[in-house]
Amino acid sequence: MSQSILENQYLYLYNYLNNHQLNEEIQALINEKNFFNRDNWLKGLAICDKVLNSDMAIEDIKQLYLKLYDKNSNLYFSSRLNQVDYDFWFKKSEEINDHFLKCNFSRAYAERDYMLETARRPYRNREKERECLLKGIEMGDAACMAIQGYNLYFAMRREKEDKEQGLKLILKSKELGYERADNFLVNITYYTEKNNTKILSAIEEFNNTRKEEAEKAHHLLGEFYLYKEENLQKAKEILEEGIKNNCPYSKYLMGITILNDRISDYNKSKGIELLEDAYNYGVIYAANGLGRYYSYTQDENKSIEKSIFWHEKAHLYYFEDSMIELARIYLYDETVKDEEKGTIYLNWAEKEGNARAMSEKAYIILSEEQPNVEKAKELLEKASELGDSYAPYRLGLMYESGNFGDPDYYKAFELYKLAADRGHIYGIELVGHYYRVGITKAEEADPEKAINYLNMAIEKGSDYAKVELAICYEVGFGVEKDNQKAYDLFKAAAENGYAYAYNKVGYYEEDGILGEKNLERAFESFQKAAQLDDLEGVYNVGRSYKYAIGVVENPELALENYKKAAEYSYGDALIELALSYESEYGGLEFDAQKIMDYMTRAAEQGYSFAQYKVGYYYYYGLTEKDFEKALEWLHRSYERGYPYAALLLGDYYLYNDAGEENPQYDKAFDYYKTAELQGVVSEGLGICYEYGIGTEENSSQAFKYYTLGAEEGYTAAKYRLGSAYKFGVGTDENQVEAFKWLLQAAEEGNTYASFYTAMMLLEGEGTNQDLEKGISTLTQVADEGHADAQFELGNCYLIGKGVLEDNVTAMMWYQKAAENGHEQAGKIVGKRKNKWKLF
After folding, report:
1. What SUPFAM superfamilies does this protein map onto (predicted)?
2. Which are the contacts of 127, defined by CB distance < 8 A and separation ≥ 6?
3. CA dist., res. 393 & res. 98, Å (int)
4. Are 696 and 669 in contact, with CB atoms under 8 Å apart?
5. Is residue 212 part of a domain?
6. What digits encode the pLDDT tens for the residues 511-545?
7. Within the chain, which residues score under 50 in pLDDT?
8. What pTM does this model have?
9. What is the C-alpha separation between 246 and 297, in angstroms, rounded?
10. Which of 769, 785, 800 is the last residue of a domain?
11. How far apart are CA 647 and CA 763, in angstroms?
12. Count of domains in the chain?
């Protein structure tokens, strides 16, 4: 074991002291009032030791002994000692304290408590601390009363909260004349009073009763202006005054404020200097502040090595947050990763009853491939009971995600609210979100509370809350609708690297929501989102290359980005790839299996369009024709409100495409009506009204929906509308309008429309007669097996209309028409078949 240099110094001082001159030495030290001088402090300790081991009266050194522990001077002396010297110093201090206790000096119990509470490892002893305080109170010591009263008031040092008894002890301490009792009382006012005027009055009253400037609570007044009034200039002036008077807490506050970029008058080196000095004067959490700064800063001072150095110093004094930070560094920082060491620090902190350590262990457990959910829950619940703010938030996520059974959104909200009440930014964010959308339904939303919580989170720097508030401005939820404010919030979040916000900014530029479109800026925003590995951003870059959004079309890059996003199962990218294979985009070969696979993956994620397409593929036999699977996927899409799924389901029942023996035609109407309510109309609804399928016959309604369907571009609807005009269904006959719509349907491949168009050309109905074109069109339709066209073409050949008269050819077409079930043709050729049905 190495020799203690301090021990040698101490023994020299002890032996040098002359018993006959001790009174003079004691008075000289007390008069000098400088126990931050390390020589004076050590000499004072040696004098106390000498007197206690002599025949001198203990009363002569009580004042000197108390000075050794005043204003953290003992910590200033010991903070820079190596461990060997510290061991000697602490044991010698305990030995001297024991002497005072044997002499029934009750105040020595308070100093022993202070020694143990501020001790380095392994000397702190919470049970012994409490024992000292209670013994001191039993002996009537005012200092012990004040300290234990403060512990009870704020439930410190594992005491159960008892504000009434705590305050009673502190007031008794003041009554007995304890010089520091007012310090405890002003702190209670500062940390519990909600009225800033009353807080300020209490601090000023305290300061006005202090005789010396150094005794004033500069740090508390500075903290008041820094955090409660947010008057940085005033705070700076007061803290500077405290620093002049060597107030270590003022140094800490100024230093940490500089490093947090709240005061720009000083450079970072000044902030570091102030925190180092505060630590040397016994403000142990200044070491934690330095450790955090070196770890989290993004400036040139970032240093994991220095972070570890300062966190080790704080850890040496049992500062629990530094234990957690050291655990996190060793567990997660790749430059120094040491999971074994990290786990040791985490276990130390948990053993100390640190709630954050429990939450961190739960986080690690939940990150495992097969997490022990119950163990994580147990840790989080314990951490939450101890007041941790993260634990209720994380428990809320677990209830929301259904880790304990079915998702419990009310329980999740309750826990988020608790986290928010404790100031956790994620809890505040999610309470704001829940108030925006409702816990389980929109009726539970609360616009005013949503806006309040989101603003609270924004004040804490939340980009998530900026996005949420932007959405409120987009729709006018709790605020007046304002797309400019929404855009500004999205942009502010994007500039902080929030990927989703980059996409939103891109959409604003793409769609020209605030005025003119700016596709180049849209593409830039999508690119920035993609550079953050955001899948929506990657997809949007692909979309931009496909549709030339702010960039020249580039099929290769479009498909490359789609595939990149699809690798991580991003739904929109899967859909685009399926459609690209379907349309053979970018040189891709049509691949039915890939189309089905990509679209099915998207459908399984709940994309209603993809579910519709998969149903459509099974309906028409892309890879296999399977009406059962088609109906399953179409129903899933329909249940999600996709109108085209409703339309195809209507077709299924109206046209009985599956060939059911007992078709359920009437079911079609409700599906068509559902689609119509969303603005999607084909010919189906009109047919239902025309023929009374699932509803009462109503020719005017039929005409209305044929018109709507035709205007939407549905070919069959155009045919039906043309027929309605031709035969006066729900409207007056109008052969010109009939020909217009029938021609459009014919040009789009509708055989029935082609037949009527041919007949109108032959007769000159609704258009100029054109026998050549009429015969050509009629022949084309007849070749496709249309019985009426075959019969009419036979008539043309029989009488020589538009063609040379030819009985043989006429009989040939009659024969074909008869074979296809045309009744009149059958009579002519002596055959009869069942009449062809429209549906």
Report:
1. HCP-like
2. none
3. 47
4. no
5. no
6. 999 999 999 999 999 999 999 999 999 999 999 99
7. 831-839
8. 0.75
9. 27
10. 769
11. 36
12. 2
